[in-house]
Specification:
15% of the residues lie in helices and 35% in strands. The protein folds into 4 domains: 56 residues, Nucleic acid-binding proteins (OB fold (Dihydrolipoamide Acetyltransferase, E2P)), CATH 2.40.50.140; 63 residues, OB fold (Dihydrolipoamide Acetyltransferase, E2P) (Beta Barrel), CATH 2.40.50.140; 71 residues, Nucleic acid-binding proteins (OB fold (Dihydrolipoamide Acetyltransferase, E2P)); 72 residues, Orthogonal Bundle (Arc Repressor Mutant, subunit A), CATH 1.10.10.10.
Length: 309
């Protein structure tokens, strides 16, 4: 038998060689089981389960510690360190870390995982047979996921980014104890910022698709968002003595820089305030009406005769 790194074997303890440890064997090949890799007490003649890996000197070695992932498997592993030249190192449960090379990660540095992020990876070999991690994609994740029920629509769930792209961010939405969860996508228009590989966040399920995947959003539903944005704009106007140099005519960039919302969201919020008689616009300026300056707030849930603002 030719042993491979990343696989657990049941082998016989052949002998003890102090001060190194034990040698385990299948009858043909022997591999070192260092004292530091022994769990419990063993003696020559015992049968033990050991996981194969390459040590720091590129020698095949074994451990009785149980890894969080084995060869060909998918697991969600935490980033515990980042090497500036090689890549990210992941916790794999053995007291040594697993490399996720930069070539497996996004080209843009800001989209790469940070320490504490968790990445879905597959355990694989490099050309020399040593262990490394590869980022798992939908072909590997989908069989481990389940189809979302329609009752998920407009609920909030925890999600983990597995593929960050410009046009959209692909995530796995937490499904509790059922599989890995549900495959989802956050379209670029539904993001409030760029998301990095391995980042975890709360998302709203905006649509359950026929294939069981879901569309997600980082934004609240328009009605709730409009109320929150209106309150924020009203508070800003009061802080600015009832006038601000922002209106429907302002650029999307200036609105986003000041309020961190889109221009369409700004227009919806301003439209609500105008219909409620709290503000008015004069060219490129928005003003509070006198009663609003005295502290009258936005009415939440008030019936509105218009839609699409």
């Amino acid at each position: 038998m030719n042993f491979e790194a990343g696989i657990t074997y049941e082998l016989k303890v052949a002998k003890e060689v102090a001060p190194h440890g034990y040698f385990v064997t299948d009858g043909n090949e022997e591999v070192l089981l260092h004292y530091s890799e022994v769990v419990g007490s063993i003696k020559p003649g015992d049968m033990v389960k050991v996981f194969m890996f390459y040590d720091t000197q590129d020698r095949l070695a074994s451990t009785m510690k149980k890894p969080l992932i084995e060869l060909g498997e998918i697991a969600l592993l935490e980033v515990v360190d980042i090497h500036p030249r090689f890549g990210s190192f992941l916790e794999m449960g053995l007291g040594r870390n697993l490399l996720l090379p930069f070539r497996e990660q996004p080209d843009l540095r800001e989209l790469r995982p940070q320490v504490g992020d968790k990445v879905y990876v597959v355990l694989a070999h490099d050309r020399q047979g040593r262990l490394l991690a590869r980022v798992a994609g939908e072909p590997e994740l989908k069989p481990k996921c389940f189809d979302a029920p329609t009752s998920w629509k407009n609920t909030w769930v925890r999600a983990t980014v597995y593929k960050p792209l410009q046009m959209g961010t692909f995530v796995v939405c937490d499904g509790g104890v059922v599989g890995f969860g549900v495959i989802g996508m956050i379209h670029s228009t539904e993001r409030t910022r760029n998301l990095r590989l391995g980042e975890q966040l709360d998302v709203r399920i905006s649509f359950v698709r026929e294939d069981g995947n879901v569309n997600c959003s980082m934004k609240v539903v328009k009605e709730i968002g409009r109320d929150e944005d209106s309150e924020m704009i009203l508070a800003f106007l009061r802080d600015q003595n009832g006038s601000m140099p922002y209106s429907d005519a302002s650029s999307a960039e200036s609105i986003n820089e000041r309020f961190q919302i889109s221009k369409s969201a700004f227009k919806r919020a301003i439209g609500k305030l105008m219909r409620e008689g709290l503000v008015y616009q004069d060219g490129s300026t928005t003003h509070l009406k006198p009663q609003a300056e005295e502290g009258e707030g936005v009415s939440v849930g008030k019936p509105e005769g218009e839609s699409g603002i």
